[in-house]
Amino acid sequence: MMDPHPDNTASPAANLNVYVQGKGYPILCLHGHPGSGSSLSVFTNHLSKRFQTFAPDLRGYGKSRFDGNFDMSDHLTDLEALLDRFRIEKCLILGWSLGGILAMELALRLPERVTGLILVATAARPRGNHPPVTLQDNLYTGVAALLSYIKSDWQWNIETFGKRSLFRYLIRRHTPTAYRYIAQDALSAYLQTSAPATRALYTAIGAGYNRLADLEQIQCPSLVLAGECDRHITADASLETSQYLKDCQSHCYPNTAHLFPWEIPDQVLSDIDHWLEKNRKTVGL
Questions:
Q1: pTM of the prediction?
Q2: Which residue among 63, 149, 195, 218 has its CA within the 20 to 30 Å range from the CA of 35?
């Protein structure tokens, strides 16, 4: 998955759009698919009160437009260039879903620069159990998302469309809080995700991905967070990853799914805060 240039010709780095907040020790925050740097606001708005957060739009996502096809490992080239651009010698990395895979890859590629990993709904050997998607699923998802954008706490929309759409696989707790994040952060990110970005991801998935055996090389502390009912990357896959990481703490949240940070943000942020405090010296804070 991460060796797309057999002829050893490196793809030039893309100049990524990045959202920078706060001051202090740097935390690189990486979104999933579909997504954008702004879709990580649940983390960055909180963490930037004590740290400096960098949330880029990955190549082909958000405002980081890119012409032509590319490979998954090109994201790593872009992110290393971003660290150089902002003169970030050492940082923590928080990655959600695809972002978590890239976080682990960066820790393997740049061990001297990555001091800790916060891995959200992700896995080094990702597995899912998502059922087939129907036309009605897509239709109801679009309607639910649009109506949430108009009025996120509209219970009629949640009951009529939300719970019968693809959101039923992405969240388990259909609360106004979850739908507020969907309206605020998910809809625009979905619309701005390019076809080449989708192609790059699905090409990589088709080729298979398994980095479990390499995780022993990661020496920094890690926190793995999983949703018990995640259908996109199962909790079992996430917890399997935690068992291969040397210095790792994990949490599995009951009755939540892939977007659990939007379902139970207070609990998730509290657990991240406790882990940061516990590993303050180890990660260099």
A1: 0.92
A2: 218
